[in-house]
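Justification of resources, computational component.

The compute hours requested in this renewal are based largely on the per-chain cost of generating structure records like the one below. Each record pairs the submitted sequence with a full structure-token output. That output is archived, and it is also reused by downstream analysis tasks.
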Amino acid sequence: MSLRLRLIAMNFLQFFVWGAWLITIGTYCFQTKHWSPAQFGAIFSTMGIASLFMPSIMGVIADRWINAEKLYGLLHLGGAVILACVPMVESPHVLFWVMLLNMMCYMPTIALAITVAYNALKTNNMDIVRDFPPIRIWGTIGFIAAMWTVSLLHLETTSGQFYVAAGAAALLGIYAFTLPACPPRFVQGTHQSLLDTLGLTSFSLFRDSRMAVFFIFAMMLGASLQLTNMYGDTFLHDFAGMDEYKDAVAVRYPAIIMSISQISETLFILAIPFFLKRFGIKTVMLISMTAWTLRFGLFAFGNPGQGLWMVVLSCIVYGMAFDFFNISGSLFVESQSDPRIRASSQGLFMLMTNGIGAMLGSWLSGLIIESFFAHADGSKDWPGIWLTFAAYSLVVAVLFALLFKHKHDPAALQALAAKTAH
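The structure output for this chain reads:
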């Protein structure tokens, strides 16, 4: 099997595992378990809590002691066991701890998958800016396939979604041991600073004020991403209580409608090399932030009936919002990092986005919705919720434009592939 096909299979399964439950767990918690927004926010925040430390710790281990692909496989096998236990949980407090363990296994694998892919491409003298996005696109396809599987099998409100995820995680865990070797790069016995000794070398990137600002705004955008993951499917499901919408396709199969977001991703991923090389990271990130504002604003005024076009357009815009931030951000971090700490640096990016950002987004949104937008009968003021999120994204965009100082250098990106291939 060619290298591209091997990495495609890895990315497909990586995001199939996540897509099987990430978008629909809210519906499971609200409609099946009847838990509150604050309880659900706490459960969803486990992704952020785990990302505060696990990607960085696993990145250090991969940089120093164990091949990244082997560590990647072990984590997925552990996650498979934990996901299979989720249906047995009846308490939101217990599910918090179970999902925290699951996230401790899963979240580091996102950065490790990038590390394994980048290492394999560089080893084969390939251009990661050009060659990685068409491979990564299959991760999005895997996410879509999982959402459609769960929706068509009517598992959105049942615990069956976790069994689907567990099976995919077990398969990927076994497959990981066949991936191209990605050995540690850290040279034992060399002089070590305090940061080296503590395994915190990647945090030295914060010494660069430009990188510090970049990571802070990555954290803020990480919060935006969690908002749409948490509430998109639940938003459409809630229209089932209205007679004029209860039979609409968007209400009967909300996960399929939401999967338009991931379909859009597959198109915008392919556009990343052009936009990144032509306009640079600052413009690409600003486009992402503007897209997040549109994403939430369109949801605020959309509905499954005559306003369905706004819901669909919001899902299309999501592809640009997600890809231009997540994929471009990882490429930017790669271009600014020492090859010896490549896994740790990607782990730091994960910490800021899916760690601190996700935790704050999950926790605060749950409290805000319960305090200001939840009614006594359990219904929610969705227009108010989405407009609040849109205003947040707009403020972030304006601040980023003012504070992030970066001069685009096309030659530097052209040199990235040559520099990192050695």
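The domain at 3-183+199-420 is CATH 1.20.1250.20 (Growth Hormone; Chain: A;). Residues 155 and 161 are 6 Å apart (CA to CA).
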